[in-house]
Amino acid sequence: MSVPRRRFLLVFGLFVLVIAGGVAYFADSAPDGLDSVTQRGCTVVQTAQGERLEGHCIAQNVTKHVFSGGPLADYTVGGDDRWTGLAGVIGAAVTLGAAGGLFWGLRRRTGGE
């Protein structure tokens, strides 16, 4: 790998990690667009056991995601909202690593390499 390409990848990786860690703190905790649409027709009621939906809407048929109890669920680390930036950095690093590994593995090889 040439030095300019290596330098570009290093700067790009650092830029992505800084943006992921900084922008993650500005993430909105309100329901996103998909959640909002699926909750139309229902009212969210707070109970002692948590939130409950009253009415008729698509969201009443939602089940927990297989990773909902995972250490990085809900854009936090271990459920602690103070670590949102760290969750963003970990997510970006894992995504960059997976994508980089995939592209590195699938790259077209020439006869000289």
UniProtKB/TrEMBL annotation:
Swiss-Prot/TrEMBL keywords: Cell membrane, Membrane, Transmembrane, Transmembrane helix
Entry-linked InterPro entries: PDGLE_dom
Keyword Transferase: no
Transmembrane regions listed in the UniProt entry: 83-106
Aminoacyl-tRNA synthetase listed as a keyword: no
Cellular location(s): Cell membrane
Top-rank taxon, per record: Bacteria
Pfam family, one: PDGLE
Cellular compartments per GO CC: plasma membrane
Signal sequence bounds: none
Domain PDGLE: 6-108
Protein name in UniProt: Cobalt/nickel transport protein
Organism: Saccharopolyspora phatthalungensis
